[in-house]
């Protein structure tokens, strides 16, 4: 909540509820959320389906201080294009079509969500990486923001 508390349309009512937001407000909340500490290191991207939303996204980006992390892509296009791009990405991540965590093969349909270690270049299903990271966290932390590669032990 702290990442978006400064946005006027995110203010709470007197009863402690959040005001209703239009789709453009939701894009602004997404922009600021993706820049927050918890999310900025995640392998995330944004796929906007409508031209009006994409134009608004660019407007938010231009008037905001700072940028999204370089690894987060923002694209415009139909849902079918997103599915095709994700399938192509998951097949080009690594020469080895298997997860270094569980040894299962990456799937083309539906496309596997894959992360790669920047040091050893091993690929993992996102959930395999998350399980490894969660195993090392204290019980009061719900979402890992970093972790160690289970293969080369590089800090990610």
What would your notes on this structure say?
By secondary structure, the chain is mainly alpha-helical. Helices cover 31% and strands 8% of the residues. The chain has helices at residues 23-34, 51-63, 79-92, 126-135; strands at 46-48, 74-76, 114-116, 123-125. Strands 1-2 form a two-stranded parallel ribbon. Strands 3-4 form a two-stranded antiparallel ribbon. It starts with 22 loop residues before the first helix and ends in a 21-residue tail after the last helix.
What is the element layout, followed by pairings?
Elements: H1 23-34, E1 46-48, H2 51-63, E2 74-76, H3 79-92, E3 114-116, E4 123-125, H4 126-135
Helix pairs in contact: 1-2
Question: What value does the average pLDDT take?
Answer: 79
Strand content: 5-15%
Distance between the termini: 25 Å
**What are the low-pLDDT stretches, counting only 5+ consecutive residues below 50?**
none
Largest sheet: 2 strands, parallel
Gyration radius (Cα, Å) is: 18 Å
Care to give the gist of this entry?
It is built from 4 helices and 4 strands.
Features:
156 residues; mainly alpha; two-stranded parallel sheet; two-stranded antiparallel ribbon; 4 helices; 8% strand; globular
